[in-house]
TrEMBL record:
Alphabetized PANTHER family for the sequence: ACETYLTRANSFERASE (PTHR43420), N-ACETYLTRANSFERASE DOMAIN-CONTAINING PROTEIN (PTHR43420:SF47)
All residue ranges annotated as the N-acetyltransferase domain in the record: 2-187
One Gene Ontology term of the molecular function aspect: acyltransferase activity, transferring groups other than amino-acyl groups
InterPro entries: Acyl_CoA_acyltransferase (IPR016181), GNAT_dom (IPR000182), YpeA/RimI_acetyltransf (IPR050680)
Keywords for this protein: Acyltransferase, Ribonucleoprotein, Ribosomal protein, Transferase
Pfam family for this entry, one: Acetyltransf_1
Cellular compartments per GO CC: ribosome
Protein name, UniProt field: N-acetyltransferase
Keyword Transport: no
Amino acid sequence: MTNFRKATKEDYPFIAKTMMLAMDKIVYEFIGENNYEEAIRFLEELIQAEDNQYSYQNTVIVEYDNKPAGSTTFYDGAYLDQLRQPVLDLLKQKYNREINPENETQAGEIYIDTIAVLNEFQGKGIGSKILDYLIEEITVKQHKNLGLLVDYKNPNAQKLYENKGFVVVGEKVLMNEQHKHMQIKPHQQ
């Protein structure tokens, strides 16, 4: 049995753990070191805060048999600059890092920043159910475009997204890695 619920501030340790599954290389590049514990601390601070792209406010927890199994974080691409600024500020203040990441999204789409399922729950179709949930909530009910990036080196993920109705609409570079930009639009349902 799969259940979805809005994340709370208290979910921050779980969300950080799942986010790291989806974006470990990016977080290491952000903080300037391959230190898992420090990367988790960085994410936890942002997840507990409000009004940034990694905030609990933008996250949904997926439970499988009443246990937290995964999470997804998404937000309106029109607010990327505003949501990213606290991340850049924290990097400068705490890590003395000034980075200028490329824009992974833009106005006109709700952007799926991360989808992650804990290892022990993988292979149960949870990732697919997360996509179904997002498609239903965003494109069907809200009639908005839903977008994501898929790494060129991950054809299995691209195939899953295509099977759900996403199409490649362009390319984007994120932290020096080439990605395909995919979207599903309300009229594609």
